[in-house]
Amino acid sequence: MQSLNARAAILSVVIFIVIVAIWEIANQPPEVKEALTEYERLLGGSEQQARVPNPSEIGALAIKELSDPFYDKGPNDKGIGLQLLYSLQRVASGYFLAALVAIPLGFLIGMSPLMSKALDPFIQVLKPISPLAWMPLALFVIKDSELSSVFVIFICSIWPMLINTAFGVGAVKRDYVNVARTHELGKIRTAFLVILPAAAPTILTGMRISIGIAWLVIVAAEMLVGGTGVGYYVWNEWNNLDLTSVVFSILMIGFVGMMLDLMLARATKLVQYVE
Amino acid sequence: MTQYFLNAQGLKKSFPAPKKNGEPLTVFENVNFGVNKGEFVCIIGHSGCGKSTILNILAGLDEATNGVVLMDNKEVAGPSLDRGVVFQNYSLLPWMSTLKNITFAVKSRHPEWSKEQVYEHSMKYIEMVGLKGTEQRKPSQLSGGMRQRVSIARAFAIEPKLLLLDEPFGALDALTRGMIQEELLKIWSKTSQTVFMITHDVDEAILLADRILLMTNGPFAQIAESVTIDIPRPRNRTDIIHHEHYYTIRNHIVEFLVKRSKELANPELREVSDHDDSKGLRYPPEVNPATGSTQEVTHPVANEETVNPDKNVVNMQ
Predict the structure, then answer these.
(1) C-alpha count within 13 angstroms, C-beta hemisphere, residue A180
(2) Which residues does chain A have within 8 Å of residue B89's beta carbon, measured at their own beta carbons?
(3) Are B81 and B109 in contact (CB under 8 A)?
(4) Are A183 and B138 within 8 A, CB to CB?
(5) B21 touches chain A (CB under 8 A)
(6) B30 φ/ψ sector (left φ>0, alpha ψ -120 to 50, else beta)
(7) CB of A274 within 8 A of CB of B140?
(8) Mean of pLDDT values over A78-93
(9) CB distance B95–A189 less than 8 Å?
(10) End-to-end CA distance of chain A
(11) Is the pLDDT at B276 greater than 60, yes or no?
């Protein structure tokens, strides 16, 4: 008997093949009954309606695109790798700015019941706002579409990090705090030796939720802002009626999102401790 | 009149009433006792009589509603490295290795020491509790007994003036407990630490202590007696039970815990505290069950200059 992982992998491959096969077989162009006129051939063969592309077409495009992902032939024709890098760079800037604000602020809220109560109404009102609702205001105030999309990432990834940091810091076990107190650790040493490591798994969980949300939002933000990035790419291919590229880029967005999540999951594991 | 090294005077702890017209809950009151330098004192009482609260007040982690604790004639205000604490649940930091759990404490005690000094000092205490070879393991990779050894090593490594042990062996099985008790005795005899320890285990208390404080049941718990254990040291688990005083002392304490701790707790039966300021505080009588002698102890109220005048030193009821 193989291990559970091996069996799960085999089952995954089987499910994949079945779905792709059904998709491919059920989605064939109608058969040609009589010879096509030249006009019909120019319009795309026997197809009277556009179809969702077949897996084989998407596969062929993927091989072509991924063999040269970083080409740049002007504003409307850039490789998928290049577009993903633009998006990743925006996500990274907004996300790290958010971490820079959220983690110290979360510490403050977690340590001080006063600040926690005082800031709670602001957080509760600002948190449920769709990040894209900030876009017009951001464009007006910042007057730069690039920075505005970074701001949107910032505002959407700040909340889970802030709330998890505050919760993690506030929930540090009394015992650990007492250890710090009986050993006369100063404020700074207590924060770095005791509170931060104790709250780190919760903080990292918040960061993992944030990166997921940031990656969801960047696609939408780039569709609005345009210019570069994978969101713009999807929308541009839709305007080109190139559905094969649309499906391909959807899959790429999913793949990159998975990699980001995996990275944060690894980092969370590093700071995890067993009581 | 001799001054105790550690002196608790008129300690009282009460919690505000849970509801508006309710009565506030007084856990203990009129708690007076002293501990001499180098002495090993155990405190025994039923759950809920406030033993842990007393220990936390001594440690500076909790505050008494009334009363004052003096150590070396200085008032205890807040936690300090002069008072090492070992908690029942070990209180090791789980993300640090055994070694780091001790070095961070040693570093706090001796910030001026070099890395090598800190390492050597820490390793000395790890060896003392027999954990050499496990210093790189995380607490989660150690058994309960080993964790408590680390915790004891940490407390001894900072060489505090007073060591506070809060039921340190409560979570351990009987075999491990016996072993660590003897280790604790061995280390204690080498270092002549002053120790104040909470326990539920009468045999453990007799094995370890010079004196055992007996508490009545809560609420309104008090320290009723201070029992002198005159069994000579060095003691060990197997020989101590053959000592002629062992069962006299043991029976006295068990009888107290089973019967008198309840009777004394009954407010109607409890004698009214009859001290006044001129006579000083009434300390629990020192009882020697082996000889049958009972000695009343009084101490003067602490000098004005040693006590924070804001604090109410004497708690009159």
Answers:
(1) 20
(2) 175
(3) yes
(4) no
(5) no
(6) left
(7) yes
(8) 94
(9) no
(10) 35
(11) no
B234 vs B164, residue with greater confidence: B164
- What's the angle, vertex CA A243, arms to CA A239 and CA A249, rounded to 5? 95
Alpha helices in chain A (DSSP H): 4-26, 38-42, 55-67, 80-111, 113-126, 135-142, 145-170, 174-182, 187-189, 196-225, 230-239, 243-271
Could you tell me the two tokens for A204? 């990292």
Integer Cα distance of A229 and A77 in angstroms: 12
Q: Is A117 exposed, middle or buried (0-12, 13-18, 19+ CB in 10 A)?
A: exposed
CA distance linking residue B156 with residue B183, whole number of Å: 12
- The radius of gyration computed from the CA coordinates of chain A, to the nearest angstrom, equals 25
Q: What is the Cα–Cα distance from B237 to B216, expressed in whole angstroms?
A: 27
pLDDT of residue A115: 95
Separation CA A232–CA B173 (nearest Å): 66
Cα dihedral B268, B271, B275, B276 sign: positive
User: CB-CB: which of A176, A183, A200 is closest to B81?
Assistant: A183
Residue of A nearest to B142 (CA): A275
Extended beta strands in chain B, E state: 6-15, 25-35, 40-44, 66-71, 74-75, 83-86, 162-166, 194-199, 211-215, 223-228, 281-288, 293-299
A184 interaction partners in chain B (CB closer than 8 Å): 79-81, 108
Which runs of consecutive H residues, i.e. helices, occur in A30-112?
A: 38-42, 55-67, 80-111
pLDDT number for residue B101: 95
Return the SS3 of B294: strand
Query: How close B91 gets to chain A, by Cα (Å)?
Result: 6
Write the DSSP assignment of A182-202 as a string of letters.
HTT--HHHIIIIIIHHHHHHH
In the three-class reduction of DSSP (H, G, I as helix; E, B as strand; rest coil), residue B13 is classed as strand
> Model ipTM?
0.81
d(CA B83, CA B161): 6
